[in-house]
Amino acid sequence: MTIFRGKAVGSGGQAIDARQVRQALAALADPAAGCELRGLPSGRNLIVRGQDLDALCAAAASLAGSTGIYYTLNPVPVDLMRPAKVGDVLCRRWVLIDTDPCKPDAHKDDSATDTEHEAARLVTQNVFDFLSEKEWPSPFVIDSGNGYHLLVRVDLPNTEHARVMVKQFLQALAVRFDVDGGAAIDTAVHNANRLAKLPCGALMVAAGT
């Protein structure tokens, strides 16, 4: 699998690696539209045209610190002056398949153990292999720290029909691949203005994964 290594930029006061952030944004941002970066939990956001990688990296650096840095999966207007709502999204460019370990409610916010993280990786691997067998475009695989993200490239309008298709797609994957007590695919990440952790690791091919 091809993997962006690394946790959320700025998580726990982590300084960003501008080269790695630039590599991630070059792959993920739509060059013809706006890309929203948002610091959480502060909620402060910046929107930069996707082709301006220098400005995007500067925006990521300005949001780094005690908060994690997230980005909108799908393109938004460059002149948007507030956090993106569903209706602001111009189109769908990515489908997020988010796999996390199953945890008791009392420990849902705890960091994943090595065993839990591996459970999420195995589910992600199975989904990746399934999509490959069906000749889907090869997705990006991102280690989110707690679990794994698959990002599948698509070209869909921002419509209710597209939202329902993505929702049903995630639900079908969950039925097929969720492991009781192990790891599960999040079926709630179908909204067009979905945020995801900005990866800050080098893009590499992980042999044997």
Put the structure in a nutshell.
With about 210 residues, this protein is of the alpha+beta class.
Task: Please write out the topology.
Layout: E1 2-4, H1 18-28, E2 34-40, E3 45-49, H2 53-63, E4 68-72, E5 92-101, H3 114-133, E6 140-143, E7 148-156, H4 160-177, E8 183-185, E9 195-197, E10 203-205
What can you tell me about this protein's structure?
The protein is 29% helix and 25% strand. By secondary structure, it is of the alpha+beta class. A hairpin with a 4-residue loop joins β6 and β7 (148-156).
Query: Which sheet architecture does the biggest sheet show?
Result: 6 strands, mixed
Distance linking N and C termini:
6 Å
Overall geometry comes to globular
Could you give the count of β-strands?
10
Q: Roughly how many Å is the radius of gyration?
A: 16 Å
Task: Specify the number of helices.
Answer: 4
Percent range for helical residues?
Answer: 25-40%
Average of pLDDT: 86
- In terms of DSSP E residues, the strand content is 15-25%
The SSE order reads EHEEHEEHEEHEEE
The unreliable regions are 6-12, 202-209
| Largest beta sheet: strand ordering | 8-5-7-6-1-10
Helix and strand content put the structural class at alpha+beta
